[in-house]
Specification:
The chain is α+β, with helices and mostly antiparallel strands and 104 residues long. 50% of the residues lie in helices and 15% in strands.
Length: 104
């Protein structure tokens, strides 16, 4: 439910903080009370379509061109799917002296 998600976000946005932490945050970020209030209002105005559009843009479309690299031992992770491209770079050695692989 979108309203529950908004409430969850506000728990972090409006979480209590000490006066010194609040002052330091404002000093370092340059964000004042008016800006914080505008952010709250914008969060409250979020609609389901906004969430769907953002997810499409950054998660679906954005990940279409993404590359993921996992450095370390293979340990059977790549056998579950034939979609992995394993490249043995042999640039370093793991804990047991085996080559470190790049899996993408």
């Amino acid at each position: 439910d979108l309203e529950e998600a908004k409430l969850s976000v506000f728990q972090g946005v409006d979480a209590p903080e000490s006066v010194s932490d609040e002052g330091m945050t404002r000093f370092l970020s340059g964000v004042n009370e008016d800006m914080e209030q505008r952010k709250r209002e914008q969060l409250l105005d979020v609609k389901k379509e906004d969430v769907v559009d953002t997810a499409q843009k950054y998660l679906v479309d954005g990940m279409a061109k993404a590359r993921i690299a996992v450095l370390g031992s293979e340990k059977g992770l790549t056998q579950s799917s034939g979609d992995w491209d394993v490249r043995r770079l042999q640039m370093a050695q793991g804990d047991e002296g085996e080559p470190v692989d790049v899996v993408s």
